Amino acid sequence: MRKQILNEKGFTLIEVMTVVTISTLLILISAVGLSVFFSKYKELNTWVELQKDALACINTIKTGVSVGDPVGGQFYGVSNAKRLELMGGIFNADSGSGITCYPPISDVSQNIDRAQFYYDGRAIRVNYVYKGVALAAPKYLFPDEGSLDKIEITNFRITRLNQSIETIVVQVDLSAKTEIREGIYKEVNFSTIMGRD
């Protein structure tokens, strides 16, 4: 029995210190890797959100903003407009910083109904009149009011493409940028053609 007790080996202080050092290094490397992963994830997510919001803005201009009650409401936009007018351009200009969409009229109360999509210098906004009643204040379309300090619109232009006096087909150009990290910006550029029926 005495021989068996003498043969048992334990850990030396050097072995314990080596294991602790290696474990600490592995934890530090993992922490740095996770930190880099989450910072890159945040950058990528910020850029993807910019793209998603800009594309949603263009789609809203095309398909229309929802007006009226949620059940029987309508959409006022370029694709379902009866008449289109460019805004923010010189008289009879072929481009401007906004567009007014006049919907088909189903009754007299809708004579002045319209949706206006325009760039106000900071954001693309929408204002509409539905059954003769206007919004109290224009809504923020892109960026939303909470993102005005994070997203900068660098270009918003609507250009008439058809040759007739009446606007039927337009090209919408939208560029915006956001800061993904200190001094580093990502930009999106969209250009799409849309027209009314």
Question: What attributes characterize this protein structure?
Answer:
197 residues, 2 helices, 29% helix
Explain the overall architecture.
It is built from two helices and twelve strands. By secondary structure, the protein is α+β, with helices and mostly antiparallel strands. Strands 3, 5, 6, 7, 8 and 9 form a six-stranded antiparallel β-sheet that branches. It has a four-stranded antiparallel β-sheet with strand order 4-10-11-12, covered by helices on one side. It has a two-stranded antiparallel sheet with strand order 1-2. A hairpin with a 2-residue loop joins strand 7 and strand 8. The longest helix is centred in the N-terminal third of the chain and has 51 residues.
Please state the average pLDDT score.
Answer: 87
Straight-line N-to-C gap:
99 Å
> How many discrete structural domains?
1
Number of helices: 2
Task: Briefly say what this structure is.
This protein has 197 residues and is an alpha+beta fold.
